[in-house]
Q: What sequence folds into this?
């Protein structure tokens, strides 16, 4: 099943897994404003669709070259005074990806720069090829950070390394991204599809309600106190203990078989 809000953005459903693909080969999947909006719409659709895992990726050997800056007559004119409103539309896309209650895994090959880097960082996990190329390239375009990169990059690798990558705008490989802690895994390019699918299959086999709550707990932990985190954990577990999935997990443990979670 294929859902689409834009001809260059595909959301394909396969059992309990969805794949959102950026598909604009001529620009290495750089996104126009309409494409960004379509990505946000796709993730809002998937949030309550019943899928258990989402793969976010790009077609034709690249993830995303950021915003489509192809010169046009309009782009050569001074930016509008109310450009902040356009940026707030972009912000809503970041939140749609980051706050999706379903675990999201970015599968990155080729170019992943600028807002494309922010898009990958908005996912919960990143699996990349060893030859993927990353850059917080904004300064080289006369820009400061956007697409949540100022928060997401610091959260992932710490302030000092984040400043190094941002101030220099240098390109770095998938292998270095793994060494920095930016990604979860870097594998040979011909193994990327299989490696990513394996981790998403493992996630999709888990208890959807419990994993959704665990995602929220971890996302909020960086801005909460221990006491607040403990209270959130208590509330979440009070929901989990009444689910069919908990009973199935206990039954499967007694019967020495893998559990079959239904998300109820």
A:
């Amino acid at each position: 099943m294929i859902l689409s809000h834009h001809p260059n953005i595909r959301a394909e459903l396969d059992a309990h897994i969805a794949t959102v693909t950026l598909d604009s080969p001529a620009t290495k999947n750089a996104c126009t404003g309409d494409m960004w909006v379509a990505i946000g719409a796709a993730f809002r659709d998937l949030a309550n669709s019943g899928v258990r895992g989402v793969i976010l990726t790009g077609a034709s050997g690249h993830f995303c070259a950021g915003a489509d800056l192809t010169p046009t007559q309009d782009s050569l004119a001074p930016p509008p005074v109310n450009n902040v409103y356009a940026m707030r539309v972009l912000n809503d896309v970041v939140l749609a990806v980051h706050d999706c209650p379903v675990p999201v895994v970015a599968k990155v090959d080729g170019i992943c720069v600028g807002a494309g880097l922010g898009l990958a960082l908005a996912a919960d996990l990143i699996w990349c090829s060893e030859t993927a190329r990353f850059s917080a390239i904004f300064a080289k375009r006369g820009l400061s950070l956007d697409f949540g990169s100022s928060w997401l990059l610091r959260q992932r690798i710490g302030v000092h390394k984040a400043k190094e990558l941002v101030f220099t705008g240098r390109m770095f490989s998938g292998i270095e991204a793994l060494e920095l802690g930016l990604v979860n895994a870097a594998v040979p390019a011909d193994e990327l599809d299989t490696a990513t699918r394996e981790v998403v299959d493992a996630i999709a086999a888990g208890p959807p309600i419990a994993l959704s709550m665990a995602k929220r707990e971890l996302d909020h932990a960086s801005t909460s106190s221990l006491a607040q985190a403990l209270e959130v954990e208590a509330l979440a577990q009070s929901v989990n203990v009444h689910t069919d999935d908990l009973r199935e997990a206990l039954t499967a443990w007694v019967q020495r078989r893998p559990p079959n979670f239904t998300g109820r």
In short: The chain has two domains: 2-204, 208-255. The longest strand covers residues 9-14. The CA atoms of residues 13 and 193 lie 16 Å apart.
